[in-house]
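Hi R.,

As promised on Friday, here is the backbone we talked about, encoded as structure tokens. Could you run it through your design pipeline when you get a chance and send me back a sequence?
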């Protein structure tokens, strides 16, 4: 999945460095022949599919939401916004109850 690049500090790169693995080693663990996708994941030019994101989480022993903190934050805000907009719809008054 393509995503516009961003200038944020990349948790994937940091996690890989902390694990002591090179891009080629990570690619091999993922079953990818080229290290190019690893570079694209780390720079934010490419988002991995869910299966690959979970594999990266397992390789680095870091939760997915920490590997993709900014994206997780965006999604969390989006959900909170929807919750606020629909809060009155999700808790309707019981039938027969007086409306305040």
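Update: got your reply. Pasting your designed sequence below so it's all in one thread:
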């Amino acid at each position: 999945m393509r995503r516009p690049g961003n200038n944020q500090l990349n948790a994937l790169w940091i996690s890989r460095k902390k694990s002591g693995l090179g891009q080629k080693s990570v690619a091999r663990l993922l079953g990818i022949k080229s290290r190019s996708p690893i570079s694209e994941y780390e720079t934010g030019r490419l988002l991995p599919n869910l299966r690959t994101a979970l594999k990266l989480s397992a390789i680095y022993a870091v939760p997915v939401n920490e590997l993709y903190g900014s994206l997780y934050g965006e999604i969390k805000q989006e959900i909170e916004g929807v919750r606020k907009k629909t809060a009155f719809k999700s808790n309707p008054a019981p039938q027969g109850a007086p409306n305040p």
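One thing I noticed while checking it: The two ends are 48 Å apart (CA to CA).

Thanks again,
M.
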